[in-house]
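Example 9 (inverse folding). The structure is encoded as follows.
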């Protein structure tokens, strides 16, 4: 075998080993990034579940107005699990959200005149009377059946 062929063979083999090592390095980065992405998603889901538990408990304890609680729960459920947002137990939150989505918020609420605010507040009261029992049942269902048990971090 000539020296040229032997040197070419060794260089080619070296290049293959280097490229294989670099490919392995890149795949390890991909696997690490995927693992980190999965862990971040799990942490996000756990945080959303905990926020949902807090809101549902606050709604049941009447520490949170029904309309506000239903809207917040609906938005969190949509971010937590779209399948759960379609569950019949959660439809009351969707109904209350849709019934109040045209109501101005924040500065726009403060800018309303008194009669307009009173009209919205009367609508809130009617919605609360109509949906309070179902919203409480749905909040209890979320706590007891839909959400994973609360983690007891020390």
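The amino acid assigned to each position is listed next.
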């Amino acid at each position: 075998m000539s020296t040229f062929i032997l040197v070419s063979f060794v260089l080619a083999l070296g290049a293959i080993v280097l490229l294989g090592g670099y490919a392995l390095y890149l795949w390890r980065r991909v696997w690490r990034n995927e693992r980190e992405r999965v862990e971040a998603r799990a942490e996000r889901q756990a945080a959303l579940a905990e926020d949902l538990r807090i809101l549902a408990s606050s709604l049941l304890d009447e520490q949170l107005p029904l309309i506000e609680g239903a809207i917040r729960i609906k938005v969190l459920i949509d971010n937590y699990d779209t399948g759960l947002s379609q569950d019949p137990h959660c439809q009351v939150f969707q109904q209350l959200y849709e019934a109040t989505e045209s109501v101005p918020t924040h500065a726009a609420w403060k800018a309303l005149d008194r009669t307009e605010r009173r009209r919205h507040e009367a609508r809130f009261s009617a919605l609360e009377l109509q949906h309070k029992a179902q919203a409480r049942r749905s909040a209890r269902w979320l706590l007891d059946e839909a959400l994973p048990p609360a983690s007891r971090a020390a």
